[in-house]
Amino acid sequence: MSLQGRNSGTGGVRGAVVVMAKAPREGLVKTRLSGAYPAREVVQLSECMLRDTIALAQKLSRVEVAVMCPSEDVADIEAHVPADVHVVGQRGNGLAAALASVFEHFVPRFHRVVAVDSDSPHLPVAILHSAFELLKKNEVVVGPTEDGGYYLVGASSMHPRLFDPASLGTDNARDALLGNARALGLSVALTEAWYDVDVPADLSRLAAELRLEPARAPRTAALLASWRPEAHDDERAG
């Protein structure tokens, strides 16, 4: 399987959406939820969110969808995603290395590249579309989360120093990323602020929204409906 980018001769692909992921294994994914929910359910949640995020990205027209993950997770991720989704192992460890790997690997093949986390399967597809539109006039696009982080980063060129691990490890990751972009003289646009699922309160919020609109992330919605996160809330309260 090969990716069909701007240099492939197809001419129809406008960019790539790369989902950042880890293999759904106990102790590796959604660790900030593991104290509140059984480990097995956290792993199932991670898998459902990844698959829903991929399905979300595939709703965009003329966009290739791929996954970037730690190199040791490639085989496990391939077993959980559609066969037409290319899975690539990152170089190095951590988020900064993963982001640098995304743009290093995909920018030479595609006109625009958008990296999105797998913690926001309920993201409106219009936001992903807007990221590609913003890249027409800006060098970098960032999707801010409500907690000071970001759920999306897009670029049309490779900027290694943009993902300096020393600065991206600060408390406010979004400010650090934007500061790096300013220091490099890059034009930056922001997409709509959104939230990802890191802690139990985020998951409760997501569950409530998906009860009303399960089609936004159907696998995640079905899982949450089956094990009723509010029941776990009752257990913790008792």
Detailed description of the structure:
By secondary structure, this protein is an alpha/beta fold. The chain has a single domain, classed as Spore Coat Polysaccharide Biosynthesis Protein SpsA, Chain A. It is built from nine helices and seven strands. It has helices at 39-57, 74-78, 94-106, 125-134, 165-168, 173-183, 200-212, 218-227, 229-237, and strands at residues 15-20, 63-69, 86-89, 113-117, 140-144, 150-155, 188-190. The protein has a seven-stranded mixed beta sheet with strand order 3-2-1-4-6-5-7, sandwiched between helices. Helix 1 links the parallel strand 1 (15-20) and strand 2. 41% of the residues are buried. The model is unreliable at 1-10 and 233-238 (pLDDT under 50).
User: How would you sum up the major sheet?
Assistant: 7 strands, mixed
Tally of separate helices: 9
Q: For the largest beta sheet, what order do the strands appear in spatially?
A: 3-2-1-4-6-5-7
- CATH fold label: Spore Coat Polysaccharide Biosynthesis Protein SpsA, Chain A
Helix content: 25-40%
> How much of the polypeptide forms β-strand, as a percent range?
15-25%
> Radius of gyration in whole Å, from Cα?
17 Å
Features:
disordered N terminus, 7 strands, Spore Coat Polysaccharide Biosynthesis Protein SpsA, Chain A, 238 residues, alpha/beta
